[in-house]
Amino acid sequence: MTSRPIDRREALGALAAALTTLGGCGGGPPIPKDALVVSLERVPAGSVVPIRWREEPLLVLNLGGTIRALSGTCTHEGCPLGWNPRQQLIRCPCHGSAFFPDGTVKSGPAQRPLRQYPAEVRKGKLIVFEGGTTS
Predict the structure, then answer these.
(1) Residues 6+ apart with CB under 8 A from 115
(2) Of 71, 102, 113, 133, which one has the fewest beta carbons inside 10 Å?
(3) What CA–CA distance (Å, rounded) separates 62 from 102?
(4) Domain holding 102: CATH number?
(5) pLDDT in tens, 78-129
(6) Residue 16 belongs to a domain
(7) Gap between the Cα atoms of 35 and 33, Å rounded
């Protein structure tokens, strides 16, 4: 086997691949005890999955390469929301509000966007953190 020097780009690529394989430096900061941890197997690509967390319904979306966690409660009058795969919208069955997958309002009567929870993916798991903001 002949050895050859590698350039900077190859070295950085190899380092990035190694860190990805190892899950980063130490796997990231510790996961808070109050965080929701969901296996990505439960939320395959192209799906929207309702999940209860602390008595609150959430919708976990894995669409178009983006994974996010949104409140599953309508901002109009608090009705539970559902996913309409044909329309690719989050819908409220009570009064007809519709939300885009990023949580913004498509049509009312809802006026405010859905609460979006901070989330990240680590080692095949989605971690959803307390807090959150409107989209």
Answers:
(1) 70, 71, 103, 132, 133, 134
(2) 133
(3) 11
(4) 2.102.10.10
(5) 899 999 999 999 999 999 999 999 999 999 899 999 999 998 888 888 889 8
(6) no
(7) 6
